[in-house]
Task: structure prediction
Amino acid sequence: MAAMHKVVGVIPARYGSTRFPGKPLAMIVGRSLIARVHDRVARAHSISEVVIATDDERIFEHCREQGISAVMTSGDHRSGTDRMGEVAQGRPAQAYVNVQCDEPLIPPDALDELVGQALAADAEMATLVSPLDSTDREMLSDPNVVKAAVGEDGYAQYFSRFPIPYPRSPEHARHFQHVGVYYYRRDALVKFIGLTPTTLELAEGLEQLRALEGGIRILAVSYPYAPVSVDIPGDVKRVEEILQRDGELT
Result:
């Protein structure tokens, strides 16, 4: 029964990437991207176990060599969440946290805040959001920066690549950037992966909309973290510069 009270961190990782093939194995100051993400998640006090979920033997073997827990999953999954669902079948837990493998700078404190608030609220699902400067028109209009509309109760009302809410009355507009880190209570994860992709999800390219349309409420946990993701090879240098600035090269 003790296993059912832990929170498992899952990092889905696949080798194929249109813009950056082999991205999880890209080296960042002598340590692979996937290893750096793993290290950050493992530092979160609220997460008792971290596992890499991959369908690629190269990533699996690399993790094994680094002493990192990894499992081979089916290559037929549509998303990282579906991959996480397969992991959950063999690892019973109260909840799971999904962290993208392109987030080598995710603060462990942010994960603890996410898990802490989600557990306190007994939330089915939760995700991180970061306050956005309402005067930063470039960020608000960038479709690669996903925005979240958050209600007074702290739950997400909608996610979009479009700047929401529309600031007709700017003094009332609260803008948040969505950070792609998710907390799932076990029953909610099972429900989510059983849902069919929806029209809104397919239109926006945002799978969390499937959860909202499926009746799963998403707690939005605010944390001041502007994501620095590794999406293309050029992002590696940017991350290395930040690590050097912060004295975290090891």
In short: The chain has nine helices and eleven strands. The chain has two domains: 1-105, 107-227. The two ends are 37 Å apart (CA to CA). The mean pLDDT is 92.
